[in-house]
Structures are given as C-alpha cells and as structure tokens.
C-alpha cells in the first residue's frame, strides 16, 4: 500500500505575521474521509526538500476534499511550501495522532487555549463545535499571540463569537503597536472562569501548555479533563 498520495495546492494565502494558510485539494485520493478527529496532523513532503508534520486546521468532513493548514515560516520545507502556486503537487500521508476527544466535551463546557500557530488544530475544534453548537455548554477560547499582527483567522473571530464562542485575546509583546487589549500570557486571564463540568483543549509552546495545565489544576480541573493533541 502506498503511504504517500499526491495532493494539489488549491490556495496559498497570507494568514498573519509569519503565518501562511495552505489549502490542499485531496479529491480523488484515498485520503478523503481519513481525517476523523479535530487536532490530528498530517505528514507533508516535497521531493528534494523534506517532510514534516502539520496540524489540520479544517474540521473533519466525511466527504470533504480540502485540508487547510497554518504554516509558520522558518524551515526549508515551510519556506518551499508557501512559495507554491495553485496546481502544484504536495505529497501527503493519512492523518496521524489521537487528536482532541471532542466527544468527551459533549453536554459540558469547553475551554480552548492556543498561542501562535497552535490555533490551527484548535480551529478544527471550533469549526466542529459550530456544526453542532447546541451539543455544548459555554465555550471560551483564550488566544495568545506575540504581537497584534500575529493573530491568524482574524476575519473569523466574529463568526465564532456569533456562534456563542467567547474569544479572549492577549498579546505578549505589544511594543509600540498601540494595542489596547489584554497583555501577557493566556493562562493569566482566566478571571472568574468556572471549571465545573468542563473539558479543556490546549495547543501551543510547551511552556504555555504547562502553564495552562498548572492554572487549571489549581482551579480544580482534573488532569484527565485537560487534553493535548499529541
């Protein structure tokens, strides 16, 4: 069985400071229907450049033919991927990882934590929740970025809030940007957030992940109710 399948670049779009959105068309390949859990990731490759894992930013769709990714610049593979034009081929494998067990959150409240490009798999969770919003209680996203220009999916935040998903944004290095919102790390802004009957999904740098876990545990949320996608 061939583990690699040729997929086609459908679009390459600027997403935020240092971030690019890559859309792959998987139509006509055995990959259709293999993305089953939000938070899963896919190994992408370009011949002569290399391969790496990338979280899928779009929600699982049984018959969907497009996978969306959020790429952070800085590696040879990413730099090559973001230079591709529509129609170019990218080798892709089946999704890996357990993802986020959204089924455990049904009927309860959901806390989402993401920083930087870590919003990619969390977006997959959000879009999955939007498709069946009444199945969940309160949903809050704590979203951190280094600078105000580094928030991906800026144009989607209003849609999320319209679906009853509270969005709390914070910037760790506002500098002279004129940013008027919250500053600091996401785990510093929980406020009076209640954690009873709550499940948390977290993605970001390891120090942020550990910081969020520590704060949630202090609040009384059991470790088994806090999920990472790896």
From TrEMBL:
Coiled coil regions, renumbered to chain: none
BP GO annotations: pyrimidine nucleotide biosynthetic process
PROSITE patterns per record: FAD_FR
GO MF entry, a single one: oxidoreductase activity
Pfam families per the UniProt record, alphabetical: NAD_binding_1
Domain named FAD-binding FR-type: residues: 2-102
Gene3D superfamilies, sorted: Nucleotide-binding domain of ferredoxin-NADP reductase (FNR) module
InterPro entries on file: Cyt_c3_hydrogenase_gsu, FAD-bd_FR_type, Flavoprot_Pyr_Nucl_cyt_Rdtase, FNR_nucleotide-bd, OxRdtase_FAD/NAD-bd, Riboflavin_synthase-like_b-brl
PANTHER family assigned: F9L1.8 PROTEIN, PTHR47215
The protein's name: Heterodisulfide reductase, cytochrome reductase
Organism per entry: Archangium gephyra
